[in-house]
Design goal:
alpha+beta, 2 domains, 10-stranded mixed sheet, 15 helices, 45% helix, elongated
């Protein structure tokens, strides 16, 4: 059945063939393909039960669980292959927008996402503060690096954060969320002919992050808390104090992505000695002020704010990965199985993102497919393959019961 599905989609066939070297045998490769197809087409919870039921003719839950836990396929090779394919697509997209003699800006967004769980015996779970519910929730927190390039977005890394007490109990080294974020930035391999802007919220805005970005030659744009101090001219004050003492006539209005903002900017120095551009901004109609810093001192207010608002792309990715591809649907206790499940989710997302790249580079300039529409199209391909297989078996003389046993076994 899987063979029929692959044969009905040339781009899918080409995609899965790239990963063949990561698997030791045909059985492992078959599980890999079946898992991906299930992530793409199954509309229920993408746990082991759902995965095992999603593709006709595949093995049972225990077989898939062994694939995730004990079979020795090379997940690092899967990661390298996935990222290499994505970067090749990104370079093609960059060529279409590159300006002679100029570096194209790309954005490495650092953030984290909570995957809530109910089982206390799941390896690595702990209690974490939820940004959504505003209370402590049981689950896993994943720190991610999301690359936005030429209008497209994909994760380049995802690392599981584990609390210090949980690390001590498990006998593994503890790394804070800021340290994990700095690891992602320090290990990121930039695309040629680009300038990388690292974007973070106030949680990851620190002297250490600025040093990592400076060492790698990356620019940094980040939010800071209201109590962060700046020195402008001969005066040093907290951000919240600055915004209260600035004359109203000193503020300007800018329009970014259809919204109007009240802004004030200046060049200043942090207590760490870093020279930065400071931008205070408040969306018209809202009361809350936001405070940004940038190590690129030449950015205009409009460009700095527009660049920072690119951070919203990571929220779109989190929503798609959880709602469409089952990032948070795993129910396994084994951490190896969980990490492999998340890896396969990232591979599944990559293929759909490829379709967006290809559609944008096609002859139709108005083609702007969404991840959801592309996933629905792939689902129709699988349904067509199923119908085709039934038609072939019926023509070969098999009766209904025999066909059912072949497809649903």
């Amino acid at each position: 059945m899987l063979e029929t599905i692959i044969e009905n989609n040339a781009s899918l066939s080409s995609f899965v063939s790239e990963f063949r070297s990561a698997f030791r045998n045909k059985g492992q490769n078959g599980h890999f393909i079946a898992y991906l197809v299930a992530l793409w087409v199954y509309t229920g919870s993408k746990n082991l039960t759902g995965i095992s039921q999603a593709v006709p003719g595949r093995r049972d839950e225990s077989s898939i669980y062994r694939f995730l836990t004990v079979q020795d396929w090379d997940e690092q090779e899967v990661k390298r292959t996935r990222l290499g394919m994505l970067n090749r697509k990104a370079r093609r997209a960059l060529k279409a927008i590159a300006k002679p003699g100029e570096l194209t800006p790309v954005f490495l967004i650092i953030d984290d996402s909570l995957v809530e769980k109910t089982g206390k015996k799941i390896e690595g779970v702990s209690w974490h503060q939820s940004h959504i519910s505003k209370r402590s929730e049981l689950g896993h927190v994943w720190v991610t690096g999301q690359l936005v390039v030429a209008g497209y977005s994909y994760a380049v890394e995802w690392l599981l954060y584990r609390r210090q007490s949980e690390c001590e109990q498990a006998g593994v080294a503890f790394l804070s969320k800021p340290k994990l974020a700095q690891m992602i930035v320090s290990q990121f391999d930039p695309l040629p002919e680009t300038i990388t802007y690292v974007l973070t919220d106030s949680w990851y805005s620190s002297q250490d992050m600025l040093k990592v970005c400076e060492k790698r030659g990356f620019k940094y744009i980040g939010a800071v808390r209201p109590n962060r101090k700046f020195k402008v001219g001969g005066h040093t004050q907290q951000a919240r104090t600055w915004v209260q003492t600035i004359a109203n006539s000193a503020f300007a209005r800018v329009k970014v992505k259809g919204a109007h903002y009240k802004t004030w900017s200046a060049l200043g120095t942090l207590s760490s000695g870093h020279q930065v551009k400071i931008l205070f901004n408040r969306r018209i109609g809202q009361k809350k002020w936001h405070f940004l810093i940038s190590t690129d001192l030449d950015l205009s207010v409009h460009t700095l704010l527009r660049f920072y608002l690119t951070r919203w792309e990571v929220e779109n990715f989190y929503r798609a990965a959880k709602q469409n591809f089952g990032w948070g649907d795993y129910q396994m206790r084994n951490l190896v199985a969980i990490q492999r499940h998340v890896l396969l989710v990232m591979v599944a997302h990559a293929f759909i993102e490829f379709q967006r790249f290809d559609a944008a580079l096609s002859a139709n300039p108005k083609a702007h497919p969404t991840l959801g529409s592309l996933q629905r199209s792939l689902r129709r391909t699988v349904h067509r393959a199923t119908i085709q297989r039934v038609f072939e078996l019926a023509n070969a003389g098999f009766d209904l019961d025999s066909i059912y046993l072949r497809l649903a076994a």
